[in-house]
């Protein structure tokens, strides 16, 4: 076949397209396990940061195993349900009425870590909030995002934004109030609050909405009569 013919050009291009596609598929498949491991370690680090433990990626798995005693789901009634809370996608499980809970032991004290998920200005936002064993006082929080504006909404992923959540309360006088994210300089007399991000009003409002919507799902769990040492709920 002549190399300057149209048939040769078409056949050559087709072979190259197939060869490149095969190589890309092989590379993607080869890296899949590594990508999954990196995603899992990033999730472990986020959960740990909610209890003020910040470790490098290569130490995340060991630290998680040491500090997280249990991981399970609760339903709308606050009852413990079956399933792997760590492996699950919170967006899907929230839609199914299953809410992840991670139980940590920090210096001999129990902390309950709850998952958060929502939508920001440019994409998904999520986080984890750790509650003391009084099931009301926030111990710590950590937030993340996929594409909020650098220097503005993306600041929700910094300790500057998350640190003030510590010590805030989810309930007032026995009533669930959540925690408000307000415009810097403003106050909220109805509930505990933290300052939002200057210039990141939409993302701050999205975090405020995410906190209320997601934490509302955990109210039955948080207000149950007794939580056993293994994290199960007794009514």
Task: Briefly say what this structure is.
By secondary structure, the chain is α+β, with helices and mostly antiparallel strands. It contains six helices and twelve strands.
Distance between the termini: 81 Å
- The backbone outline, from C-alpha atoms, is elongated
> With helices defined by DSSP (H or I, 4 residues minimum), what is the helix count?
6
The proportion of residues in beta strands is 15-25%
Polypeptide structure, described:
The protein is of the alpha+beta class and 235 residues long. The chain has one domain (47-234). The protein has helices spanning 6-49, 57-67, 90-95, 159-162, 201-216, 219-222, and strands spanning 68-74, 80-81, 99-106, 109-119, 124-131, 138-145, 171-172, 175-176, 180-182, 193-195, 226-227, 233-234. Strands 2-1-3-4-5-6 form a six-stranded antiparallel β-sheet. The chain has a two-stranded antiparallel ribbon with strand order 7-8. Strands 9-10 form a two-stranded parallel sheet. A hairpin with a 2-residue loop joins strand 7 and strand 8. The longest helix is centred in the N-terminal third of the chain and has 44 residues, at 6-49. The radius of gyration is 23 Å and the shape is elongated. Residues 226-235 have low confidence and may be disordered.
């Amino acid at each position: 076949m002549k190399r300057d013919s149209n048939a040769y050009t078409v056949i050559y291009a087709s072979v190259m397209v197939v060869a490149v596609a095969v190589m890309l598929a092989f590379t993607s498949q080869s890296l899949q396990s590594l990508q999954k491991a990196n995603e899992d370690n990033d999730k472990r680090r986020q959960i740990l940061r909610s209890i003020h433990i910040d470790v490098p990626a290569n130490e995340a798995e060991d630290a998680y195993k040491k500090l997280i005693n249990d991981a399970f789901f609760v339903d709308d009634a606050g009852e413990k349900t079956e399933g792997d809370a760590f492996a699950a996608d919170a967006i899907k499980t929230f839609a199914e009425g299953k809410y992840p809970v991670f139980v940590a032991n920090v210096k001999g004290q129990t902390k309950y870590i709850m998952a958060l998920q929502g939508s920001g200005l440019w994409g998904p936002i999520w986080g984890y909030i750790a509650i003391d064993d009084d099931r009301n006082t926030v111990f710590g929080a950590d937030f993340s995002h996929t594409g909020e504006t650098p220097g503005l909404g993306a600041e929700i992923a910094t300790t500057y934004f998350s640190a003030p959540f510590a010590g805030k309360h989810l309930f007032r006088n026995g009533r669930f109030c959540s925690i408000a994210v307000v415009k810097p300089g403003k106050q909220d007399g109805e509930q505990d609050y933290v300052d939002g991000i200057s210039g990141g009003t939409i993302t701050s409002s999205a975090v405020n909405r995410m906190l209320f919507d997601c934490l509302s799902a955990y109210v039955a769990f948080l207000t149950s009569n007794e939580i056993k040492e293994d994290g199960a709920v007794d009514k």
